[in-house]
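Record passed on underneath.
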Amino acid sequence: MSIDIDKIRADFPILSTKVRTKKLVYFDNGATSQKPQMVIDSMTNYYQQQNSNVHRGVHYLSQIATDAMESARENIRKYLNAASVEEVIFTKGTTESINLVANSFSKVFITEGDNIIVSEMEHHANIVPWQMMCKEKKVELKVARVNDDGSLDIDYLKSLFTDRTKLISLAHISNVMGVINPVKEIISYAHSNGAKVMLDGAQATPHSVIDMQDLDVDFFAFSAHKMYGPTGVGILYGKKKLLEQMPPYQFGGEMIDKVSFEETTFNVLPFKFEAGTPMIAEIIGLSSAIDYMQEIGIQNIADYEHELLEYATSKLEKIDGLRIIGDTKNKASVVSFVVKGVHHYDIGSLLDQFGIAVRTGNHCAQPLMKSMGISGTVRASFAFYNTKEEIDVFMEALNKALNMLT
């Protein structure tokens, strides 16, 4: 199956938008992706036809809303190839999922004198929760190095493990560079050393086939809005045997079994970690986004986006003074770059005048910027609704911008 780009683009209403009289070229998919009409319609239908709270009512609307949400959970389970729906927990997004694990896992499995490992390439959301936990628990935070080309220094990473290493938390794919980490190798090595593994999968789920049982990862987090779904909802996958031992992260309605002033007992998985009214419409929207991606084919998406990445990279490499950050072969469809003597914000601002949306700055990865000796980058991140023609427009605009700035 090949990508029918005209049909796909017609499914995304926002792509017909004009920006400063120019046709929108949206290359900020790493920050958030656009939504197909199918996803928008699924959420609208919920509010128009099914709106009710879930799990709490015997009336018709409550029952069909509950069925819709739990059907979405099963759809997500299949997409992840998780062993059970009990391993699929609804959160607000990747950030909350990581915070949940940092809070709850540490209460049971981490004690003073232990250590955990992260890397220099992590998003702040995969640094700060662990940093705060380490301070509270008097635990050492170890940091794996990144090579000059953006790849992980695997030998150095392995040297950080000790018999007190309890967990390693890494980006599956770097949000800045698009570098795909060798996660299966890392997971196997960590497990052989008695450590658990969490993956920040925010950038992986839009671009690659995800299989929890094949990866054998202990925890995996991602956000709907990076994969053509709505904002405000995400998933924490966790192995059932670990989740069962971890205490709840938040407290309130739905996550309880029995409450008295003397004692409270907690609900079963996955509800133990889902306090309060969930993001029902958004969960349905995420499930619809998964359906949309699977209709096209995840591998078809990955292959087409790789073509876009190679095409853009070949064009960018011809610009004098331009340096690509994360110049490795094993990448998702993200290219970050700096231009000697030109500030990344200035480039982004001028590109906006041509209707082109890119991301500029440190991308919530200040430690990576420090290790690379830069203050920030221009990041162009591609989705399967983008085209080589858009890349040509981008390159023409970039050259004009650089002529104005140098």
Notes: The longest strand covers residues 165-171. The domain at 40-294 is CATH 3.40.640.10 (Aspartate Aminotransferase; domain 2).
